[in-house]
Specification:
The chain is of the alpha+beta class. It has one domain (4-68). It has helices spanning 4-20, 25-52, and strands spanning 54-58, 64-68. A two-stranded antiparallel ribbon has the order 1-2. Helix 1 packs antiparallel against helix 2 (25-52). The protein starts with a helix and ends in a 7-residue tail after the last strand.
């Protein structure tokens, strides 16, 4: 399975090729389908990473505490 960076680079290459507009319809559709798959894979990885992101919150006493991002709203 390619890394996120490899998938993103391939997706950018596909977009460049499609934007040029010099491919046949069949080739364009094939690249488009591949691009949709890569886009979905990248989104899945980004969603997973977002769930792992934490931020440091400075407490009133000067200590630091980690919380998930975005911080939960307190009632």
């Amino acid at each position: 399975m390619p890394s996120f960076e490899e998938s993103l680079k391939k997706l950018e290459s596909i977009v460049d090729q499609l934007e040029k507009g010099d491919l046949s319809l069949e080739s364009s559709l094939k690249l488009f389908e591949e691009g949709v798959g890569l886009s979905a894979a990248c989104k899945t990885e980004l969603d997973a990473a977002e769930g792992k992101v934490q931020i440091l919150i400075k407490q009133r006493d000067g200590s630091l505490k980690t919380e998930t991002f975005p911080p939960e709203t307190r009632k």
